[in-house]
């Protein structure tokens, strides 16, 4: 599998998450239901082949192994991402995050408030400190691609 195929497969999964699952997540007040949705989200995205899981793509600051690959379409100035993680809950959290930013321009990505958007899903009270730190590391990595 090559990056272009992963990007295409990821794009479809992230659009499905953005248009269907985020509303269900936002409307749910039950943690067990939110947790179930998170676990399912990671299954909507392709698995990065082992040979592509290089150290350079690891998100530093995550307690579990999580990879983030990035492609910048310089003609349209749009950013696209591929992700994977050893932990399903982390992959689900990352999938939510990327569903909000995939395809944004550099200017849009710079001003997009991922923390606020994520808080609107009412997940923060349920996340451990280490998962919160991992999400902050992911936000920093995403934003780093705009420099």
Structure description:
The chain is mainly alpha-helical. The chain has one domain (3-144): Sufe protein. Chain: A (Alpha-Beta Complex), CATH 3.90.1010.10. The chain is built from 6 helices and 2 strands. It has helices at 3-27, 31-41, 88-101, 106-111, 114-119, 129-144, and strands at 66-73, 78-85. The chain has a two-stranded antiparallel ribbon. The termini are far apart. The model has no long low-confidence stretch (mean pLDDT 89).
Output the CATH topology: Sufe protein. Chain: A
Tally of domains:
1
Q: Summarize the helix and strand pattern as letters.
A: HHEEHHHH
* Helix content class: 40-55%
Strand order of the largest sheet: 1-2
N/C terminus separation = 29 Å
How many helices in DSSP terms? Answer: 6
Mean pLDDT: 89
Structural class assignment: mainly alpha
Mind telling me the CATH class? Alpha Beta
Low-confidence stretches: none
Radius of gyration: 14 Å
Note the beta-strand portion.
Answer: 5-15%
Give the overall shape: globular
Write the layout of secondary structure elements.
Blueprint: H1 3-27, H2 31-41, E1 66-73, E2 78-85, H3 88-101, H4 106-111, H5 114-119, H6 129-144
Antiparallel strand pairs: 1-2
Helix pairs in contact: 1-2, 1-3, 2-3, 3-6
At a glance:
With 147 residues, this protein is mainly alpha-helical.
